[in-house]
Amino acid sequence: MKNKIKIVLVGIGGVGGYFGGLLAKKYRNSDEVAVIFVARGEHLKQIQKNGLKVIKGSDEFIAKPALATDNANDIGIADFIIFCTKNYDLEAAIAQLKPCIGEKTSLLPLLNGVDAVERIKKYLPNATILQACVYIVSELKKAGVIENSGNIQTLYFGLEQEINDQLLLFEKLLKDAHIEASCSKNILSIVWEKFIFISATATATAYFDTCIGALLKENQTVVLKLIDEVTQIALAKGIKIDPQIAEKTLDKLKKLPYQTTTSMHRDYKNLNSQIEVMSLTGFVVTEGQSLNIETPVYKEMYEKLMSIKINIL
Questions:
Q1: pTM of the model
Q2: pLDDT tens digits, 101-118
Q3: Which terminal residue of the chain has fewer beta carbons within 10 Å of its beta carbon, N or C?
Q4: Burial class of 165 by CB neighbour count within 10 A (0 to 12, 13 to 18, 19+)
Q5: b/e string for 247-257 if b means 16 or more Cβ within 10 A?
Q6: How far apart are CA 223 and CA 87, in angstroms?
Q7: Which of 193, 199, 191, 192 shows the shortest CA–CA distance to 280?
């Protein structure tokens, strides 16, 4: 793998497993590209033994990466590293992958929040870190098995106001693997529009303990209030947001299967002590306070969700 383009995926869950699976399938026998999975525990053992099963509707395939490991020293310097961990695992993943990061390595965090780039820069101030977001409904069903149950799987990435050869190469590698990827120089607006979508949805599904279909049926007005509050934060930070963002967000939600929910809601239901409430809900409250913008609905929901998290702990 010495002279191959190395694409490393860290966190082989719903997002990393689906996109990583497509990449591994495409470049399984490639002389030019090596796809590497960084995973752990029983999930890693199953991938090493049988490959990664990827399911989408009635279609499924087995993806076998060039390497699946939990040891970054096995990998060497990577060209692209895609971080698909939960927000609360990001710093640990950065520390783990440091041996793979060189001067020309591009880092792509596919996390649910909007602060990943700033957090990575604290540890790697000189690294090339791309802004990115993804729309997908996919999850780890069991060790070695990923299922995409949605009807949207798009990935956006880029550097604000810049397109270069490295970005165009990455876009081509992704598209050739049948990933709906798009490189944009207006990536901040795209990332924030995704944050508006996921922050409001994750907060509401967790707060009401319900799926998206039932949420829209019973509490659509509340969802609209959340969308408005987080949109005001984005605008105050100078981010260009589509004036029709509320309608666009609702339209995306309505196109999802009725029983779809969010990973944060699943974490609450599963009594997971590691929950993304700080990055998806608390972030809006604290940013509102620093910008003197009222976020009453977010604040109420954040306080309740934090009390539930404390009880889980």
A1: 0.88
A2: 999 999 999 998 898 999
A3: C
A4: exposed
A5: ebbbebbeebe
A6: 23
A7: 199
